[in-house]
């Protein structure tokens, strides 16, 4: 009586292990996709925060005009180009108009490649009470990330915003 010992793997064992490995790799791929979209969303949130602090710094540098609502602008307002204050001497009011104009141009992505946020908008509201409070709102479209997370349908706008409120 001689017994033959089998060694190696059968074809079924190999196929089962490939199926298990494929499912694991698909899960890792989905995790990488979610991570990339979360990073994009976090990047846009960081850019929006930086832009809110940028206009706040400009307001604090030109405080006299800021407390008299010289920097106030609506969310959907498109300011006209007041001309550059870089080479010429500007009054504080002209400087405020220039600051708001450049800030609004940096918010929204332009066809020329300028801008930081997709469909970016911003508003500044300054109180008339003492102490003067400035409320800065930055809004953008985060549809690319939110559609992956299920918070918005694909192709539907998903506006996100941050609000910064501080005493000047």
Brief summary:
The chain has 168 residues and is of the alpha+beta class. 46% of the residues lie in helices and 14% in strands. It has one domain (11-167).
Q: Strand sequence of the main sheet, in spatial order?
A: 1-2-3
Q: State the total count of DSSP E strands.
A: 3
- What do the pLDDT scores average to? 84
Give the terminus-to-terminus CA distance: 97 Å
What's the order of the H and E elements? HHHEEHE
* Relative helix content: 40-55%
Radius of gyration: 27 Å
Main beta sheet: strand number and arrangement?
Answer: 3 strands, antiparallel
Number of domains: 1
State the assembly state of the protein chains. Answer: single chain
Low-confidence stretches: none
Strand content: 5-15%
**Overall geometric form:** rod-shaped
SSE class: alpha+beta
Helix tally equals 4
Features:
alpha+beta, three-stranded antiparallel beta sheet, 4 helices, 14% strand
Task: Characterise this structure.
The structure is a single chain. It contains four helices and three strands, in the order αααββαβ. It has 168 residues and is an alpha+beta fold. It has one domain. It has a three-stranded antiparallel sheet with strand order 1-2-3, covered by helices on one side. Strand 1 and strand 2 form a beta hairpin. Helix 1 packs antiparallel against helix 3 and helix 1 packs antiparallel against helix 4 (143-149). The chain starts with 10 loop residues before the first helix and ends with a strand. The model has no long low-confidence stretch (mean pLDDT 84).
SSE blueprint and pairings:
Blueprint lengths: L10 H51 L1 H4 L25 H16 L13 E6 L6 E9 L1 H7 L9 E9 L1
Antiparallel strand pairs: 1-2, 2-3
Helix pairs in contact: 1-3, 1-4
């Amino acid at each position: 009586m001689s017994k033959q010992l089998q060694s190696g793997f059968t074809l079924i064992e190999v196929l089962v292990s490939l199926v298990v490995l494929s499912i694991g790799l698909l899960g890792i791929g989905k995790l990488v996709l979610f991570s990339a979209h979360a990073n994009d969303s976090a990047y846009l949130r960081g850019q929006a925060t930086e832009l809110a602090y940028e206009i706040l710094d400009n307001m604090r540098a030109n405080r006299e005009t800021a407390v008299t609502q010289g920097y106030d602008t609506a969310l959907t307002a498109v300011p006209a180009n007041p001309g550059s204050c870089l080479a010429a001497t500007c009054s504080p009011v002209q400087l405020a108009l220039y600051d708001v104009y450049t800030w609004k141009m940096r918010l929204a992505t332009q066809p020329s490649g300028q801008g930081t946020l997709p469909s970016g908008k911003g508003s500044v509201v300054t109180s008339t009470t003492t102490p003067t409070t400035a409320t800065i709102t930055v809004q953008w479209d985060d549809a690319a990330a939110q559609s992956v997370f299920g918070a918005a349908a694909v192709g539907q706008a998903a506006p996100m915003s941050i609000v910064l409120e501080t005493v000047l």
